[in-house]
Design goal:
Blueprint: E1 2-5, H1 15-18, E2 24-27, H2 33-39, E3 45-48, H3 56-61, E4 67-70, H4 80-85, E5 89-91, H5 98-114, H6 116-124, E6 142-146, H7 150-161, E7 165-169, H8 175-180, E8 184-185, H9 188-194, E9 197-200, H10 214-219, E10 224-228, H11 237-246, E11 249-254, E12 273-275, H12 284-303, H13 318-341, E13 346-355, H14 363-374, H15 387-393, E14 397-403, E15 411-419, E16 422-431, E17 435-441, E18 444-448, E19 453-460, H16 465-475, E20 480-487, E21 493-500, H17 506-513, E22 522-525
Parallel strand pairs: 1-2, 1-3, 3-4, 4-5, 6-7, 6-9, 7-8, 9-10, 10-11, 11-12, 13-14
Antiparallel strand pairs: 13-15, 15-16, 16-17, 17-18, 19-21, 19-22, 20-21
Helix pairs in contact: 5-7, 13-14, 14-15
């Protein structure tokens, strides 16, 4: 079996492959898409980092390919849908860079506290200026951790060893689990007010985009220090610059920027600003670890064994997969939809399978649904193997039930999410031709697709509301593709589902919320 290795993957990390005499490892040079298409038909597996783009055209030309490995976390350079449709497993290495990212965060924190880069720079310029660099101690300071996934947890543990007090914001972790870690769970606003130093370990989503903005910084202590080694765009860099110049923010350190590569940000010119060029996973150990992890996954996939970090399909028998494959996509979309509708901390996930689905083993479908629910909102990688464990570790109970009576549908998946703020219900089915659709949202009958952008707005059923929403969308040049309204009774509560051509900007969403009769506004993208 032949494995193509691209992008300078660590040679030490390829040891799990090289020890097998029936596996041949070929190191590839940088190629264009056309060059890769010409040769990919010879290979049973390939490993890439971020440089090589594994497009749908490349996958179509791959006649023997069984598995694609990403030596790292992000798989944006791999067309997962094309791979899934062709039955090719995509694996990654989500754990290999945890310590590297956590230690970089600690390095940033210490460098900010003691002004190390500025002091070093001045000394190298021949100036001995001891008085200019009075620092602060970390002991006794309050560290605010935004996101208690793998990396956020690792940072919290290390900060505790330095006798710091830890508060954390993570709406998807239970308070009991946090208490076991000696971490106080608080709201985001409370964290802003309490923390002396704030470190971010959340994914970039439409909810976390510019999470650290002017309004947030205004809530923070004078002299706060901010660190972002997670994703660019979570910090509003213009707002950060303004408040660093004013002195409100004593220092900041970014390993990631909204637009990369970044060498011209005005932040870089500030003495109290530290920047690194996206080095979170750039340690010798991390590069070896991710290569070893993905190489072991490649071997398992080629042998037909269970893979731990599949990102595009659960492990199951081919016979079962053939029967339930259409439901996997529906389940993941239902989970992703719910992840964008939630308020509060998830306590319980209840999945009910009705009709024909009751005949099958639905465990893989539940796992897929959990992946869709948790992966978009957690910093840690959630896949088809660890989704159930991730939920359990965060104190989320998962219940699945089946019933043969499908009511109005031959098959139906209903997912109820219980949070400390209430309950959300969502149902979906497969129509003729295995076409997925959403048929119920919080008790309102609806018929919505599982792709595209949609505005979801529960409201009071009265004239004028839809017109006002349309006017606001027109003002921001957003085109309406279609619209539905579901209601239980005339003049009571109803729900509006409006399909739109583009993501609605936050300013317009805020304006919708001011319309008399609108109860809630959510933007969902599938």
């Amino acid at each position: 079996m032949k494995v193509l290795v691209m992008d300078g993957v660590s040679e030490q990390g390829l040891a799990p492959l090289r020890k097998h005499t029936d596996i041949e490892v070929i190191i590839g040079e940088k190629m264009t898409e056309d060059q890769l298409i010409e040769i990919i038909g010879e290979y049973d597996a390939m490993i890439v980092r971020s440089a090589t783009k594994v497009t749908a055209n490349v996958i179509e030309a791959a006649k023997k390919l069984k598995v694609i490995g990403r030596a790292g976390v992000g798989v944006d350079n791999i067309d997962r849908n094309a791979a899934t449709n062709k039955g090719i497993v995509v694996v990654n290495a989500p754990d290999g860079n945890t310590i590297a990212a956590a230690e970089l965060t600690m390095a940033m924190m210490l460098a900010l506290a003691r002004k190390v880069p500025a002091a070093c720079g001045k000394l190298k310029n021949g100036i001995w200026d001891k008085k200019a660099f009075l620092g602060v101690e970390l002991r006794g300071k309050t560290l605010g951790v935004i996101g208690l996934g793998r990396i956020g947890t690792a940072v919290a543990k290390r900060a505790q060893a330095m006798e710091m007090n830890i508060v954390a914001y993570d709406p998807y972790i239970s308070e009991d689990h946090a208490k076991k870690m000696a971490v106080e769970i608080v709201t985001l606003q409370e964290l802003f007010k309490k923390a002396d130093i704030i470190t971010i370990h959340m994914p970039k989503t439409k909810e976390t985009y510019h999470m650290i903005n002017k309004e947030a910084i205004e809530l923070m202590k004078d002299g706060v220090r901010i660190i972002n080694c997670a994703r660019g765009g979570i910090v509003d860099e213009e707002a950060l610059y303004e408040y660093m110049v004013s002195g409100k923010v004593a220092g900041a350190a970014l390993d990631v920027f909204e637009s990369e590569p970044c060498t011209d940000s005005p932040l870089i010119k500030l003495d109290n600003f530290i920047a690194t060029p996206h080095l979170g996973a750039s340690t010798e150990e991390a590069q070896i670890n991710v290569a070893v992890d993905v190489a072991e996954e490649i071997v398992a996939a080629l042998r037909g064994d269970l893979v731990k970090n599949a990102v595009n399909m659960p492990s199951m028998s081919p016979k079962l997969l053939a029967k339930i494959r259409p439901f996997l996509d529906l389940a993941e979309k239902l989970g992703t939809f719910q992840s964008q509708m939630l308020d509060g901390r998830i306590e319980k996930v209840e999945v009910v399978y009705s009709g024909d689905l009751a005949k099958y083993d639905v465990n893989p479908i539940t796992t897929t649904l959990l992946k869709g629910l948790l992966d978009p909102i957690l910093q840690e990688n959630v896949n088809f193997v660890n989704a159930t464990l991730v939920a359990r570790n965060r104190g989320i109970s998962v219940i699945q039930t089946t019933k043969e009576n499908g009511e109005d549908y031959h098959n139906l998946i209903t997912v109820n999410i219980y949070t400390d703020k209430g309950k959300r219900m969502l149902s979906g089915t497969l129509f003729q031709g295995n076409e997925p659709g959403i048929v119920n949202i919080d008790g309102y009958r609806i018929n919505a697709p599982t792709t595209g952008h949609m505005l979801v707005a529960p409201h009071i059923d009265k004239p004028g509301i839809i017109g006002k929403v349309g006017t606001i969308l027109g003002n921001v040049a957003i085109n309406i593709a279609s619209m539905q309204v579901g209601r239980v009774e005339l003049g009571g509560k109803a729900i509006m589902i409006m399909m739109v051509d583009n993501i609605i900007p936050p300013s317009a969403l805020k304006e919708f919320a001011t319309i008399d009769g609108i109860l809630e506004v959510k933007m969902v993208s599938l």
